[in-house]
Amino acid sequence: MGRVLYYHWVMKPTSDILDATFAALADPTRRAILARLATGEASVAELAEPFDMTQPAISKHLKVLERAGLISRGREAQRRPRRLEPRPLAEATDWIERYRKIWEGNFKRLDAVLQELKHKQKKTIDELLDVVRPKPNKKRRTR
Fold first, then answer.
1. Where does the pLDDT of residue 99 fall: very low under 50, low under 70, confident under 90, or very high at 90 and above?
2. Which residue spans within 6-109 are E strands per DSSP?
3. CA-CA distance, 81 to 41, in Å (whole number)?
4. How far is CA 74 from CA 40, 79, 89, 92, in A?
5. Residues 82, 44 contacting (CB under 8 angstroms)
6. Global pTM?
7. Structural domains of the chain ordered from first start
8. pLDDT tens for residues 1-38?
9. 3-class DSSP assignment, residue 74
10. How large is the C-alpha radius of gyration of the chain?
11. Helix crossing, 55-67 with 12-25: angle to 10°?
12. Which secondary-structure segment (H or E) carries 59?
């Protein structure tokens, strides 16, 4: 499969979802809203309560979260509670986890290289000290 085809079939769909998720998570107000919804569903008024902003401003944040698929809107008579949708967060977590494993491997290899360099440095220093240190004279005992 060519690179362009691979990108469009494999990377691009995931990329759009992840882009929307990470863009939504980039704002602290939206992260706070998600944290609140993790405890249970809530109305717009309940979600707006702890923030010093207008309800239309909160509604804009909610629309961003809805477009990213992070929350959904229910319907209970006149009430339209919002609830957390875990799937996009799980997908973002899976994506991050893949890269965490890669970086973990890179760090382990770097640690091994640093340990080897430390060992070589210590060996070199010991060799230099052997050259510059005066050798103790061995005194012979006479009988």
1. confident
2. 71-73, 82-84
3. 6
4. 12, 8, 19, 24
5. yes
6. 0.66
7. 3-85 (1.10.10.10)
8. 566 655 555 555 567 889 999 999 999 999 999 999 99
9. coil
10. 30
11. 160
12. helix 55-67
